[in-house]
Structures are given as C-alpha cells and as structure tokens.
Write a structure and sequence with these properties.
Elements lengths: L1 E7 L3 E7 L5 E8 L3 E3 L2 E4 L1 H23 L3 E8 L4 E4 L9 E2 L7 H11 L1 H8 L8 H11 L1 H6 L2 E4 H10 L3 E3 H4 L5 E2 L4 E2 L1 H7 L8 E3 L4 E4 L2 H7 L6 E7 H8 L7 E6 L3 E7 L6 H5 L5 E2 L6 E2 L2 E3 L3 H9 L3 H10 L3 H11 L10 E3 L17 E3 L7 H25 L6 E5 L6 H11 L3 E4 L4 H13 L6 H8 L2 E5 L3 H14 L2 H8 L7
Parallel strand pairs: 1-6, 6-15, 10-13, 16-23, 23-24
Antiparallel strand pairs: 1-2, 2-3, 4-5, 5-8, 7-9, 11-12, 14-15, 16-17, 17-19, 17-20, 18-19, 21-22, 24-25
C-alpha cells in the first residue's frame, strides 16, 4: 500500500512515496537548469522527462525494497503557465517557455485591445499578462510559424507528465486556469477568448477535477520505472492548490502560506469573487482542488529567494561554516538572531522585497527592491530580521487587499522551508495579527498528492476525511498584542515604500 506524489517544479522534480496514512517510505529529487539569456527563459522538456523517469524509478524501487509494496498510484502536480508543444507523433517542438520569459507582451496587448480589458477580466477572473500560456501560444503563431504549423497539442507540465506516463491527455481545472483561456465557473475552455487569440481549443487537454484517474501506466514503461501494470496515473492540481490541500486550507477563512522561493498565500473561499479592483491588481480566481471551492494567489517573487540572497552575501561566512559543520546556515543565522539583544523588538529597518520585481498587488516587473534605515549600529542579526520583516510586511499588504475585496483570512498554515524558522513564524504572527500554524509535515505539496491518491484508491471517503487523518498541526504561533501594536507604525511607513522607489527611479506606478 504505497502512493507516489510527483511534484514538477521550475528547477527540479521530486517523487515522494508514502503509505496512505502519510508515513514516508521513499523518494528522490533531480535538478534541471533553465537557460536564461536576455529575457529568454526556457527548460528542455526532454531533460525534464529524463529526470521524471529517474525520480519515479528510484521512488518505486526503493519502496519495493523497503516494504515489499508496489506503488499503487502516482499523482502529478506542477507549476503553472509554461508548457510543451508537440507534433502528431508526440515529438517536442520547442523548449518550455517559462512564465518569467518576456515573450508575449505584444500579443497580450493585442488580445486586450481586441477583446477589451474589462471583458477579459470578467470572463477569465484574471488580468491579462504575458506570463500566462495564451500569449506564449500567440507568440509561437506570430514569431515561430514553422513550430506553430506542426503543433498538434500543447501540454502544460502536469498534463505533459500524465500523458507521457499514461497516454491520456487531461489537465486539472486549477492548472487550466493558469492559461488565460479557461472559464473557471463553467470549467471549460473559453471559446470566445481563444477565437479572439486565433488559437484552436483542441490544442489543449481535457479539463478534469483534481484527483481524476487518467488510467494505468503505459505497459512500455513498467519495467523501466519499476512499476506494476496496475499502477494508476492520476491528475493532481497546480502546485499551489495541491499545497493548499495538503495544508488543510480548504475552509473559507483558512489559507496556506507557502514559504518557498516565492512566498504565496492561497486562501479558500466558496464563491467566485467579482471585485474588479482585486482582479486589476493581479489576483485571480481559480478552481480549488475541491469542486465548488475557489482560491486566489497573493504572492511575492522574493520570499525564500531573498533570505537565500542574504545568506549568500551578507551571511556568506555562516554558509561556509555550516558546510564545515554539516548544519544549516539558516540555523546558524537564527541562533545569531536569537542571541542578539537588539533583535528583541521590531527593527525599524524597512526592506522592500522587490529584488525580482513586484508581484501582487502591483504586478510590476520594472520596479526595484530597497533597504532603508541602516546605521553604523545595525547588526547583521538585525538586518537578517529586517529581511524577514520586509517579506512579511508585503504579505500583510496582500492580506489587507484581499480583505477589502471580501476574502478574509483568519488563520495561516505555514509550509515550506521558511516555516522551519520559529523566529520568522513569530514575526509573521506579530505583523499580520493572525495565528500562524506550522505543520508536522511542512511539505504540503507531497501531502496533498497523497491525499488525492488515497481518496482515488478508496482509503478515505473524501478529501475532508483524508485531511483529518494526514494534516497535523505542529505548533501555533499566536500574535503578541504589544508587538503587533509596535509593528503598526513601521507598517504604515512600509506602505509608502513602493511609491518612493518608483519616484526615485522615475518609473510609472502600477495600481
């Protein structure tokens, strides 16, 4: 009795094999590298497929060696927007153009002018942007006509893996909603928008609910991957939705706070919001993994990435010492933070975490990060704390925007690498004024996959029962009222940072 979650990211893929009760059995991780040059950001689909086969094979064979059990089901989850064009024979025609790639801007503008901005937003529950799939497809049509002419199907990453493993072309509702071509209410491809873009909807896979069985693994792959012919391949969901499921964040008022490279808060709600001001600020309305529920994404491009930057620059000696002592550099920096008397209160240093541009609520790729308030008395530990504060101020700003639009978050379930820092969790509770819970298993994406597989195989009646069994709170960090009050003054100043930076660089503001 074993279930595998297959998580496909922009920098690598991993398999996690667990028993239906969530007990870890085996797994593997393999990296791949994106080619990035002058705004062109691509992954090699064939390299990704090789890595997928490797992590599946290792996870399955180790599972059999350790328990004697076969992997019963593989649930696939992935990042969004990017995809793989293939011809009639299934051959890859082009590299995977990532969401950070700057191609598609002219196509986005042309489609918006043709269809109308407000009509697009009301139809798709998202603001048009070149990061989405549809503008990239239009770019192929305009700039790579030889590729577009041969294009028989366009897979996003989740349905590409499902197809390669099972031969079935189906895509989860949540991932389909990242294309800018999907009607999130009726759960179908949006014919009107596709016609305006000049794209045939038959190029996409069939949309299905999260947890839909595609079929058994292809017989030709069983021996190579160490799988039984009875192993089922199952469509999961877009990775943030899978993580929300695995964090138990599917009741209105609850949200997962995924603290990875990008920090993303994904709240659940029970009806589509139609607040154009939210959509205009980059918030989307996406189908949840549980049919009938919806979710949105409030995110900061530089969450864990900014803490990593601090580690690799200001904290480089801690990184080097950690390698010698076989420990984590973050653990050493946390210890330095805890021992510094100057870190017992808000720093007053303001860090605008737009080091890779601004995500929600600005969606401004041209802006910059900033640090304000340093002095000769500033310690490294204070600077480290200020970085965590700045990221949290940005997420607090997002929570306020959502609340004004009717999406009220009352508790955060923190997951990912950042959730391992108790110091950061208390900062997060104090700044947001919300209880912040960490989980026994911080890898919420893997837990979400196991939940979907366990329900599909009949171990649980539904996802709610699976969540009750698999999602366990480790600790709850309650906000300190006195600290929250002290943070309010600093947060008031933080709110002015974006405009100040834009004024300094004479850049147009985006609202």
């Amino acid at each position: 009795m074993a279930i595998m979650g297959l998580d496909l990211g922009t920098s690598g893929c991993k398999s996690v094999v667990c028993a239906p009760d969530g007990t870890y059995i085996s797994g593997a991780y393999r990296e791949y590298t994106a080619q990035r040059d002058a705004g062109v950001h691509e992954l090699d689909a064939n390299v990704m497929w090789d890595c997928i086969r490797e992590v599946v094979s290792i996870g399955a064979r180790e599972c059999r060696a350790r328990t004697g059990d076969e992997v019963e089901a593989i649930i696939v989850t992935s990042f969004g927007e990017a995809g793989v064009p293939v011809d009639r024979e299934g051959r890859v025609l082009h590299g995977i153009v990532l969401y950070t790639d700057n191609r598609g801007e002219a196509e986005t503008n042309a489609l918006t002018a043709r269809f109308g901005l407000e009509k697009l937003m009301r139809t798709l529950y998202m603001k048009p942007h070149m990061m989405y799939t549809l503008p990239k497809l239009m770019w192929y049509k305009n700039e790579r006509p030889e590729v577009f002419a041969q294009m028989h199907h366009f897979y996003l990453i989740e349905d590409y893996a499902v197809w390669r493993l099972s031969g079935v072309s189906q895509i989860s509702y949540s991932l389909a909603s990242r294309t800018m071509a999907f009607d999130v209410v009726s759960k179908r491809w949006c014919t009107e928008v596709l016609e305006a873009a000049g794209i045939d909807e038959r190029i996409f896979s069939k949309p299905v609910s999260a947890g839909t069985v595609a079929g058994p693994v292809l017989p030709s792959l069983c021996e190579e991957l160490g799988l039984s012919p009875d192993t089922l391949i199952i469509t999961g969901a877009q990775d943030q939705i899978t993580a929300a499921l695995g964090a138990g964040a599917f009741l209105p008022g609850t949200s997962v706070d995924g603290m990875g490279t990008v920090e993303c808060i994904t709240p659940a709600f029970d009806r589509p919001f139609d607040d154009m001001s939210l959509i205009n600020r980059g918030y989307v309305c996406a189908p949840h993994a549980i049919d009938g529920l919806y979710a949105t994404y409030a995110f900061c491009y530089c969450g864990g990435a900014l803490v990593q930057w601090f580690r690799d620059t200001v904290g480089l000696d801690a990184k080097l010492r950690a390698a010698q002592e076989n420990t984590s550099a973050y653990r050493l920096l946390d210890a330095e933070f805890a021992a510094d008397p100057a870190c017992k209160s808000p720093t007053g240093i303001l860090v605008l975490p737009h080091f890779a541009g601004a995500a929600t609520p600005y969606m401004d790729s041209a802006t910059h990060g900033a640090v304000v308030g340093l002095s000769l008395e500033t310690t490294r530990a204070q600077f480290y704390r200020a970085v965590m504060e700045g990221i949290t101020y940005e997420m607090r700003l997002n929570l306020e925007m959502l609340k004004h639009g009717g999406v009220d978050v009352r508790v955060l379930n923190a997951t990912g690498g950042g959730s391992r820092s108790d110091l950061w969790m208390q900062i997060k509770a104090d700044i947001t004024g919300l209880p912040v819970q960490t989980l026994e298993n911080p890898e919420a994406g893997a837990v979400g996959c196991i939940m979907l597989g366990a329900v599909a195989k009949g171990y649980y009646r539904d996802l709610q029962e699976a969540s009750a069994a698999l999602v366990r709170v480790k600790r709850c960090f309650e906000p300190d009222a006195a600290m929250h009050a002290r943070y309010e003054e600093h947060f008031s100043n933080y709110r002015r940072m974006y405009d100040a930076v834009k004024d300094i660089y004479a850049l147009p503001k985006i609202y």
